[in-house]
Write a structure and sequence with these properties.
Blueprint (H helix, E strand, L loop, with lengths): L2 H9 L10 E9 L3 E4 L1 H16 L2 E12 L2 E12 L2 E14 L5 E11 L1
Parallel strand pairs: 1-6
Antiparallel strand pairs: 1-2, 3-4, 4-5, 5-6
Length: 115
């Protein structure tokens, strides 16, 4: 996969597709919420998020993808429904920094949640 595909897959919750592209010493910062350091910590969090995704209907929409060198930015929204009722709605922007081995080195996620 190319960098934009890796980033878009991660941002859209298709985490398993991206695991092989995460550097061992990668870092994921969810601004004002959490920080995960190391590939294992990132994957462990992805697995928890994926369990939540299985409990709801998800509707991801990507509004823009910007790529420049080793950086990719994905912005979009995610709507989560249960029994056809909105549980939450998130507007997000994820900044990906890749190393020279085409692996994610750092992710910075900005998420604004509304009901």
């Amino acid at each position: 996969m190319i960098k934009t595909e890796i980033a878009k897959s991660f941002s859209n919750g298709e985490f398993v597709k991206t695991y092989e592209f995460i550097a061992d010493n990668a870092e994921w910062v969810v601004v004002q919420e959490n920080k995960f350091v190391g590939k294992k910590a990132i994957i462990d969090n992805c697995e928890q998020v994926a369990k939540y995704f299985q409990s709801v209907t998800t509707n991801f929409k990507t509004s823009s993808v910007i790529a420049d060198g080793n950086s990719v930015v994905i912005s979009g929204t995610a709507e989560f429904l249960r029994d056809n009722k909105r549980v939450s709605f998130v507007s997000a922007c994820d900044l990906y920094e890749f190393n020279n081995n085409n692996q994610i080195q750092k992710i910075t996620s900005y998420c604004i949640q509304a009901k």
